[in-house]
Amino acid sequence: MGHVTQTSTRPAEAGQAALAAPAAGPRELAVQGVGSRRPWISRPDQAFSAQALQERLIGCIRSWRDYPPSLRLWFWLVPVLTTVIGGILRFVRLDAPHSLVFDETYYVKDAYSFLISGYERSWPDKANDSFNAGNPDVLLNTPEYVVHPPVGKWMIAGGMWLFGADNPFGWRFAAALTGTLSILLLTLIAQKLFRSLPLAAAAGLLLAVDGHHLVMSRTSLLDIFLMFWILAAFGALLMDRDDGRRRLAIRLARQGAASGDGRPTAKQLLAGPWLGVRWWRIAAAVCLGLAVGTKWSGLFFLAGFGLLTVLWDLSARRIAGIRGWISGGIIKDGLPAFLSIVPVATAVYTATWTGWFRSDDAYFRHWAETNPSSEWGWVPDSLRSLAHYHLEAYNFHQGLSADHPYKASPWTWLVMGRPTSFFYESPPQGTGSCNVSNCTSAILSVGNPIIWWSAVIALVVLLFWWAGRRDWRAGAVLAGVGTGYLPWFMYPERTMFYFYAVSFEPFLVLALVYCLGLVLGRETDPPWRRRSGLYLVALFVAGAVLLSAFFYPVWTAEVIPYQEWRYRMWMPSWI
Questions:
Q1: CA 105 → CA 111, 126, 129, 152, 284, distances in Å?
Q2: Rounded to 5 degrees, what angle do the CA atoms 105, 106, 107 make?
Q3: Which DSSP letter does residue 143 get?
Q4: How many CB atoms lie within 10 A of CB 307?
Q5: What is the pLDDT of residue 34?
């Protein structure tokens, strides 16, 4: 009887809102939304065939090759088109303003220092003036104390190496390219999550036109690089989820075939098989190591995503019919996950400090040699010096509570209560395109209100959908938002800014698109219902695009009349 109940009529993944019924064809999958359900019931001797197991664990669409040729083109064309749109918005007038803005004064100059010497060096007074004038070669010979890891600054340095450090396009190229590629990543991720070309297009387009992501893509701060590596890690874990389930199905099916009656033995079902080396998980670990190497807040995602991938594996073993799915999953999935994520990410993170290790003059580089220790003397001096550097940087972050006119509590982030002003200038009449008495050129890192405020409502919907339907996709999106957002509440006294939210912004877009999928409807709905849903989704996306066009001048430092700027300041706290 136990074998019979292992192929229940409940949907896959504990009541998930599956995307397609087994009978649905690839063409229907191209336009479907969220919320359809599929029953499974099969004879015990058929429940452990490779096809039946993969149907339960993955579904009927397993790769882009399962689509007909006419849809395969759109499978790639949709991500490419959204990426091109995002790239145009990010690269056009990338050199405006022709000066360092906001925290570019730190990260761009540090990146140039990396390009020259491999570590951060100090700058003289009024170095910004020299940098803005196209003469960055005014570095001092003394090392500079900085509190952020090197990866993002190395990426900025790559743009300078390609296009020169004497112009803003070179400073910002890496940020613009990274922001553009993140649109491609998000479109592919949405396509994999929702198996819907319209929803994938909506996800990519909404991220492409959102002002917060746009501003962060057009200025060389570290957070856009942090966001990219986090999103890449999430995409790799999605690939690993399917790969692990495919392996589980194949190995269980082999055991069933070897037993003679089509079912694995009771002993084999006690814990399930080992799944071997999970290369996609290792790829995710590399991305997470690079995320932590950009900003330490990537550690929250390292922990959150590590837990998420193990929970996915536990669920897979339960759905497959393994009796001891908790103990078996912890031993055969949880421990290998820890060993493939934490050590790999640690090694990648340490490798990002290669420039510091290779230098002789970097800050704290020889601290251990002048501070011998009887307790830790067995640790190489270079590693002990790096550990001291990290301790000092951690203490700095813990005590960072200076006042700032644009500091913003995490409570205000989702509603954009206090966006950060990166740049503001009032050019006189007759300067450039200023033809009136009072003009403004500004960069405000405020998001598109339709996108952000709708995403807040979407998060509430996802909470109910995850709790009520236990849809794994809703849980995954909520995990991405929660991991990037909730930890900041642990530091109420610290100075924080709204632009930190870009690290989890792609997951807010996924939450919004999930709800758009509910509006779009299921493939089993009547045609009039599907058409109505598609029209509503298109209307919402069109409204977001039009509102972005309205806000675009205050995201890209266009010169506009002062009154036009005031029209775009919808809340007093935006000024």
A1: 10, 11, 10, 14, 31
A2: 105
A3: B
A4: 14
A5: 56
Reading phi first (left if > 0) and then psi (alpha if -120 to 50, else beta), residue 92 is in beta
Phi, psi of 143, rounded to the nearest 5 degrees: -75, 155
Structure tokens at 165: 């450090």
Supply 148's token pair.
Answer: 């952020």
The residues, ordered by sequence, that sit 6+ positions from 310 with a Cβ below 8 Å of its Cβ are 329, 330, 333, 334, 337
Q: In what order do the strands lie in the sheet with 439-444?
A: 421-425, 439-444, 559-561
For the chain, what is the mean pLDDT?
A: 88
pLDDT of residue 281: 97
Residue 261 phi/psi, 5-degree rounding, is -115, 10
- Give, for 454, the enclosing helix (H) or strand (E): helix 449-469
Longest Cα separation, the chain? 88
CA–CA gap between residue 539 and residue 199 (Å, rounded): 13
Would you say residue 42 has pLDDT above 90? Answer: no
Concatenating the DSSP letter of every residue in 32-62 gives --S---------TTTTTSHHHHHHHHT-S--
Which position has the token pair 């009136």? 436
| Residue 429 CA: distances (Å) to CA of 87, 97, 435, 535, 558 | 32, 18, 6, 45, 14
Q: Is 122 exposed, middle or buried (0-12, 13-18, 19+ CB in 10 A)?
A: middle
- CA 23, distance to chain mean position in Å, is 34
Could you report how far apart the first and last alpha carbons of the chain are, in Å?
A: 67
Asked whether the CA dihedral 22, 24, 29, 33 is positive or negative, the reply is: negative
* Preceding peptide of 572 cis, ω within 30°: no
Give the model's pLDDT for residue 285.
Answer: 98
Tell me if 323 sits within 8 A of 270, measured CB to CB.
yes
Task: Report which secondary-structure segment, H or E, holds 506.
Answer: helix 505-520
Residue 172 contacts residue 50 (beta carbons within 8 Å): no
Q: Which of 291, 74, 289, 73 is CA-nearest to residue 182?
A: 291
Task: Say whether pLDDT at 70 is over 80.
Answer: no
Distance CA 6, CA 41 (A): 9
Is residue 440 helix, strand or coil? strand
Helix ranges (DSSP H) in 150-297 = 151-163, 168-194, 197-209, 211-217, 223-259, 268-271, 279-292
Which pLDDT score is estimated for 61? 62
Q: Which residues pair with 143 in a beta bridge?
A: 121
Give 463-497 pLDDT, tens digit per residue. Answer: 999 998 889 999 999 999 999 999 999 988 888 99
Q: Residues 384, 478: contact at Cβ < 8 Å?
A: no
Q: Which of 143, 238, 123 is nearest to 188 (CA)?
A: 238
> In the chain, how many H helices and how many E strands?
25, 3
Return all residues near 544 (Cβ < 8 A) that are at least 6 apart: 206, 209, 448, 450, 451
Q: How far apart are CA 229 and CA 494, in angstroms?
A: 25
